[in-house]
Amino acid sequence: MRNLSEDTITQEVLDRIAGTKNERTKEVLSELIQHLHDFARKVRLTEQEWLQGIEFLTAVGHKTDEKRHEFILLSDTLGLSMLTVCINNSKPVGCTEATVFGPFHVPNAPEFALGADIANGAKGSACHVSGRVLGLKGEAIENAHMDVWQADEEGVYDVQNPNFTEHRARGIFRTAPDGSYRFTTVVGESYPIPTDGPVGDMLAATGRHPWRPAHLHFKITAPGYQTLVTHVFREGDKYLDSDAVFGVRENLIAPWTKNADGEFSLKYDFILNRA
Amino acid sequence: MRNLSEDTITQEVLDRIAGTKNERTKEVLSELIQHLHDFARKVRLTEQEWLQGIEFLTAVGHKTDEKRHEFILLSDTLGLSMLTVCINNSKPVGCTEATVFGPFHVPNAPEFALGADIANGAKGSACHVSGRVLGLKGEAIENAHMDVWQADEEGVYDVQNPNFTEHRARGIFRTAPDGSYRFTTVVGESYPIPTDGPVGDMLAATGRHPWRPAHLHFKITAPGYQTLVTHVFREGDKYLDSDAVFGVRENLIAPWTKNADGEFSLKYDFILNRA
Q1: In angstroms, what separates the C-alpha of A189 from chain B's closest C-alpha?
Q2: N or C: more exposed end of chain B, with fewer CB within 10 A?
Q3: pLDDT tens digits, residue range A56-111?
Q4: How many CB pairs under 8 A join A and B?
Q5: What residues contact residue B84 under an 8 Å CB cut-off, 6+ apart?
Q6: What pLDDT is recorded for position A192?
Q7: What is the pLDDT of residue A97?
Q8: A31–B35 C-beta distance less than 8 A
Q9: Residue A80, Cα to own-chain centre: how many angstroms?
């Protein structure tokens, strides 16, 4: 078709992908095209703005590597990540809620025995974390695979260190027969998401702060249960109501208790939903 | 705000960018967020699909460099580029219409005197191109800056050659006092857009061919006139009705005439709109 106008081009693009074999791919791509075109028409996108968009996305791509996930950060700060979590994680009352995955997970972290100290040189006061992984009826979930990661007291993850070679404050555990887990790590603090890339430019342009409240990441998988990707947030943190990535949920907030010896304790039970 | 749901998160993200100083930035970003979230809700985007999207965009970014503009190619094949052209180039009847910029323009191409041969080794039969650059009232536009680029008879642009060092079939001219221009190049042929990257994967998944009808690119600028980015398409090309990037307009199609000596001629006048 020739001489397409702003009123006819969307249907032509949709017609052009009519031969898509996978029905779901066709559905998702069709809606993406429709919404993308609607956006451009709605704002009367200029050619200069189009080019700025191309350059911005290119910069996001170039900033991204195995340790720096700028596209995840962009999705997180635009609320798309948390929206996707909301869409996919409606669960019965009583289950632990999910939140964003974030850009700092590392596959194949080292596995530790229960009770191990995973700090491995990460800075911060010692923190003893314990609790149980349970089903909704209170049943213990044995041998659940628990992937843990966090920032240190300076708000920095091990992978953000340019000389990153060793995992710090990061590890994998398996729950005991009674569903319990325990390990030692450090007390992490609130931190700004990385602002030295295009996402940082966007936050500056929109007058937003880049801070996330202090938290500890968990990814818990167990046969027969829905995988849970979540955080436990630190009670009292000043960014709980303005998390830069919109991830805070009331029932994920818990106290880090200071003990007589100056070390800290955190107790938290996770309730998984049946698959 | 805590405990955001799929129904409340969009407003929270919009509230968070309320402090954006530039009003236009705020408008564009607000609509982008609204349309992006609407898309995710509409298709019930899964977490796996979200991750595939992140990985696809990252691959597009990694494929992009100074010579390969995969994000432009993505925009072109989704019809966004041509839509943006449509939104910004409504002109009085009689003006030459605009079409997509494409991913193969190179800034600072060499400048030539009128009549020069820009082929510089590009493969193909010689083609003598001439015409005038005029205003809507027929006034000659002198000294218009005319940036020309094209593929060769194998459908390949100079920059697609991995050993690219010299500009071929690419150059800049200035129109004569009577608005005329003339130069010699080669006859380009229709060609597939590059399919060895993520955009090629998308075309394959959607059952689309990657071909563009044969054309010659022009970018013409002159003080007091709107810049014109356009092509002249070759009459009779079999892809005129299914251009992979949706760019064909009836009044941009012209005949490449074969002369008695086996060389070709193309005559085309460009009519610019007042700025």
Answers
A1: 19
A2: C
A3: 999 999 999 988 999 999 999 999 999 999 999 999 999 999 999 998 999 999 99
A4: 214
A5: A40, A45, A46, A47, A50
A6: 96
A7: 97
A8: no
A9: 11
**Facing residue for B75 by CB, picked from A17, A54, A75:** A54
Tell which phi-psi region holds residue A12, choosing left (phi > 0), alpha (psi between -120 and 50) or beta: alpha
* Cβ–Cβ under 8 Å, residues B270 and B262: no
From the list A6, A79, A84, the residue facing B50 with the nearest CB is A84
B41, B44, B207: residue with CB nearest A20? B207
- Mean of all residue pLDDT scores within chain A: 96
> Cβ contacts (< 8 Å) between A83 and chain B: which residues?
6, 9-10, 37, 40-41
Report residue B206 as tokens.
């959607």
* Residues of chain A contacting B40 with CB distance shorter than 8 Å: 80, 83-84, 87
Which residue stretches of chain A have pLDDT < 70? none
Which chain A residue is nearest to residue B76, measuring alpha carbons?
A: A13
Query: Residues of B with CB below 8 A from A20's CB?
Result: 205-207
Over residues B132-173, the pLDDT tens digits come to 999 999 999 999 999 999 999 999 999 998 888 899 999 999
Chain mean position to CA B230? 8
Q: What is the structure's pLDDT at A207?
A: 96
To test the contact with chain B by mutation, choose from A5, A10, A17, A248 the residue with the greatest count of B C-beta atoms within 10 A, namely A17
Instruction: Count CB neighbours of A212 within 10 A.
Output: 26
Yes or no: say if B151 and B157 are a contact pair by the CB < 8 Å rule.
yes
Q: Identify the burial level of B211 via C-beta atoms within 10 angstroms of its C-beta, where 0-12 means exposed, 13-18 middle and 19 or more buried.
A: middle
3-state secondary structure B234-267: ECCCCCCCCCCCCCCCHHHEECCEECCCCCEEEE
Q: How far is A132 from chain B (nearest CA, A)?
A: 23
How far apart, in whole angstroms, are the C-alpha atoms of residue B69 and residue B119? 23
Q: Which residues of chain B have pLDDT under 50?
A: none
Contact B108, B82 (CB under 8 A): no
Alpha carbon distance B107, A30 (integer Å): 34
User: What's the pTM value of the predicted model, to 2 decimals?
Assistant: 0.94
Q: What is the pLDDT of residue A205?
A: 97
State whether ipTM is beyond 0.90.
yes
Residues of B in contact with A205 (CB under 8 A): 20-22, 25
Report the distance separating Cα B165 and Cα A156, nearest Å: 44
Give the dihedral sign, CA B103/B108/B110/B116: positive
pLDDT at B77: 98
With beta carbons less than 8 A apart as the criterion, state whether A31 and A65 touch: no
Nearest Cα neighbor of A19 from B208, B211, B76 is B208
Instruction: Compute the distance between CA of residue A73 and CA of residue A196 in angstroms, rounded to an integer.
Output: 12
Is A3 close to B248, i.e. CB distance below 8 A? yes
Gap between the Cα atoms of A200 and A82, Å rounded? 19
